[in-house]
Amino acid sequence: MFEYAPAPESRSVVDIKASYGLFVDGEFVDPTDGGSFKSINPASEEVLAEVAEAGAQDVDRAVRAARTAYEKVWGPMPGRDRAKYLYRIARIIQERFRELAVLESLDNGKPIKESRDVDLPLVAAHFFYYAGWADKLPYAGFGPDPKPVGVAAQVIPWNFPLLMLAWKIAPALAAGNTVVLKPAETTPLTALLFAEICQQAELPAGVVNIVTGAGETGRALVEHAGVDKVAFTGSTEVGRAIARSVAGTRKKLTLELGGKAANIVFDDAPIDQAVEGIVNGIFFNQGHVCCAGSRLLIQENVADRVLESLKRRMAQLRVGDPLDKNTDIGAINSAAQLERIRELSDAGSAEGAERWSPPCELPERGFWFAPTIFTGVTQAHRIAREEIFGPVLSVLTFRTPAEAVEKANNTPYGLSAGIWTDKGSRILWMADRLRAGVVWANTFNKFDPTSPFGGYKESGYGREGGRHGLEGYLNV
Amino acid sequence: MSERVAVRKTYKLFIGGKFPRSESGRSYLVQDANVSLASRKDARDAVVAARAAVKGWAGATAYNRGQILYRVAEMLEGRREQFVALGVPGDEVDAAVDRWVWYAGWSDKLPQVYGGANPVAGPYFNLSAPEPTGVVAVVAPETPALLGLVSVIAPAIVTGNTVVVATSPTQPLAAVTLAEVLATSDLPGGVVNLLTGKITETVPALAAHMDVNAIDLTGVTDAALAAELEVTAAQNLKRVLRPAPADHDWTVDPGITRMTTLLETKTVWHPKGV
Amino acid sequence: MTATTTSARSDLSELGRSETALRTFLHGLPGVDQVGAEQRAAQLGTRSIKTTAKAQAIDLAIRMVDLTTLEGADTPGKVRALAAKALRPDPADPSCPHVGAVCVYPAMVPYVAEVLRGSGVHLASVATAFPSGQAPLEIKLADTRAAVEAGADEIDMVINRGAFLAGRYKEVYDEIVATKSACGDAHLKVILETGELATYDNVRRASWLAMLAGGDFIKTSTGKVPIAATLPVTLVMLEAVRDFRAATGRQVGVKPAGGIKTTKDAIKYLVMVNETVGADWLDPDWFRFGASSLLNDLLMQRTKLTTGVYSGPDYFTLD
Hints:
heterotrimer, A: alpha/beta, six-stranded mixed sheet, 15 helices, 38% helix, C: alpha/beta, eight-stranded parallel sheet, 14 helices, 8 strands, globular
């Protein structure tokens, strides 16, 4: 046998402070009412840092700082200079790559392999891409003289903390807006390190403000009368509440919400790559991915064969220490999320679906869930309809392309979809009919700063990435 | 010789390509005519008709949709005097005809202007293209009755959406007459559905309807009502076009935002290999 | 993959009887998406193999080396020295295992056989008009028989790529069957020359063709064309042997050859074997590296692990 010895990434590259303040107007400041919360490592439940909790007054202070910076500095600044600041930030991210990757894995629980090979390269690329837009906005297709919106309130989730920050901040700043961003309460640390990067880049004070906190902080931010734009990534439930809260205002709103993507495998698919795509589709980032391929639709005449290959492949997945370079699946981000995954999985079993996980030993401390598939699932099962946001795959079958489309679209969500077949015309036929913002054909979970991302239906509206990603930050 | 007794027109709703009376059997007197007073049930029927029309209309070629919109312009031009007789200024009819022509040309250009290939950093073909969002509920501006109406219908349907329109409550005759134009323009039944009557009666039902994908509040003048409708529309995250400012100038170049707000961008990836 | 059911098992042996049956079967195999296969191979290449795992991997890799010389300039003296090195790769360290085999041209077999006799190190000979395979069949078979008679217990044959690319699958199949028969008890490794097959779809089809015809091993390359062994090609071949065993119950070995020069490369291959076909193939009987300079790098890394000090080329024999 060939057993891989532990290959831990060193955490000494990161200097985590005992406590963090709010980043307002270029400085770290204490919150007005002194509230705080703890950010823990979900792989060990160890406390990483004490983080300030922003109240309404702190949010107000941050919005005012952003407004002043917008009016006095960032709005009037020539695009070519805004571009240079963004390029600077992109470069500093590349330079401090390893530190950021390790901190992301510590705070989030995702494997270092992913923070190192996926998240961080995409973060740097996103800033690099939008930097170049800052002085070319008249060519973006939104008229000859597009104007920024003003102050953007941005609320991001915990699944890709730094990447979601990049998706929000880079286009906003490129278009000439200033921002107040609230990271998720379970993963605030890389956003706070990003604040230090803004200082290092000598970004003018108030252009980027980071307020940490939970739902109440987020509510105070999006409901603040001084913001002109709200951008949110997270659950459909919260997205709905935000859509209501901005009703009747002139705030621009973009929402990137939940999903329940179908990953459709035809009998002529390149099977080995399809199996990789299925695994990457649902087990990437512990399944904490809004566009995860959480519903596998297999053509019935190859279902047994695909499932056999899938199970064999799943047995190779290595679950454990996120900092081990050979870990494929890390920790579930929080106790609350673990509870939700358990609850829905139990519902799957209770409703009669057949549950399978490869043999795998889970660490004792921390939040863990073995990669799991459910077979014999029907459209009526909860696990086929509700977003689980964990490493749990529901397997269904279909007989014809039309049936595949019908089942894939039979959901209130519409974020992404996958198609696996060797037949080109079928791919295009399917892609035309799938009601989803991103369709991956013979691949899955691929991202790029130039490629627009966002959903149909209850998966939200607006697009992030590419030229389209500027639209939400310009008055067009 | 006695003077000829005129044959009057009955002004009815326009749903699924047909001209039914309100299922409620009600009408209201406006512009010297009895106009159908649409009910919540009529709104529901109109959504069903609009949904049924989506597949064919969104699936039609852009060339075909462009030709049909241009045909609407031709038909409207021919009926110019009919609208003038209803009190619509001749200039406004001309502008409405021109607007149809303008939007007709967008059908096969917007996907090129608003979509395209994305140069991703990897061995992938990556293409973004806009698609219609589906069924759109529209509150037409109170005035100008014809140009305002055309300016909200055309941008929604040119890209393949279907619409249920709450027409101007005070000047509905132009809308019903436009329906006659649409009915004779090769536009498939159900692509445009017109509800005359009270906005407060039909539009809340449309805003709440879970099979409506977007709502255009352009013609809502009551800010509180607009906010309330937006709140209702959030239930299934409808795309929202907010009310137009009272002083909006309908004669200027409309831009593309009306069209793009009612579109979804779909991005397709595929590996490039041998 | 196409045939994993029991009923299909009995059918496979019949495939070689007709060109149509072979073509239908080979073209019915699932396609390979190039980008996906290459990404999977690259991902496996990011595994971090350290300390005890690395030591284990290095010794295993040494045992899997087919220490090779295939030069026009080969002489009895040169191949004897190589065979001596195969037996004791690191004269300074008796705990160092011997390699899997020595691989030479048929004419050199007798000289190597003298050295290796009774050692457990196999003696492989290339044959069938290696490397081009462009000779009449009778000559290729005579080449094979001569090598076996001179003492080779493994024959590395080349397939007829021209016939394969022209779609004459039965001709390729029949040649392999005939060569296998000429091998007698010697193991037959079938070289696909994947660099000339150009696509992964072809690599998968050629792998199945070689296995259906009775090959004991499938091997990537002669080392004589610009593109030799690569991780993704080896991945596709490993998937083929995995699926072939599932379909027929018979296990076939895999040998990447050419271009594997460093310990780091070799470990990537072992990781790929481990995670694609599993422990059953992590053995010199089922996986080999066709290489020459790789051995010294393995030895240097081995010394580094035992002594903690980076070694240099002057401390390892050049043969």
